[in-house]
# Entry
Amino acid sequence: DADVTQTPRNRITKTGKRIMLECSQTKGHDRMYWYRQDPGLGLRLIYYSFDVKDINKGEISDGYSVSRQAQAKFSLSLESAIPNQTALYFCATSGAGARDEQFFGPGTRLTVL
Amino acid sequence: GNSVTQMEGPVTLSEEAFLTINCTYTATGYPSLFWYVQYPGEGLQLLLKATKADDKGSNKGFEATYRKETTSFHLEKGSVQVSDSAVYFCALSDKARSASKIIFGSGTRLSIRP
# Structure
């Protein structure tokens, strides 16, 4: 079984709809992250969480919110989706060390019409 | 702030060719440096890393050396295979309150012809 899972894997929605993307991990990591990937822009950090009570904005948090329901679960919400939020979204986790690598989920492809 | 600049793609090579993908960084302090690889339809996975100056990371025939004097971490492989076709991301750790955020470059798409 995959260590980091994301649901759904693909989603098509309409402008103005509320969307939730979910991430679960079995690695036992405290730290979790949400990124979006756009062609030619690499990955950009949306939100990150160091533990259940510690949530921080990344570089592109406008239009997004998150919820850390448990150590293993970190959800990303688009309260009112807009077309320029069409992208590939990745969840990641990491351990407590300052030099620890991040482990990524398979991604969710979101299309906003 | 910290940043990563990597070679723009796409890069197309023939099988068994030598590969270099350039990566330079800007950072305060002493970040760790990473190369991640993304195969089609998959998430990113760590390819190699180096945590201090002059360290060499290596994996699957790929190598990169942490060069503090030139602020570089170029990825090399002596003989590429078709299975190496993927997008490669250079990245650095950006410490924040004793934990790391990772800053990614824009990615380089590599295609290998048989």
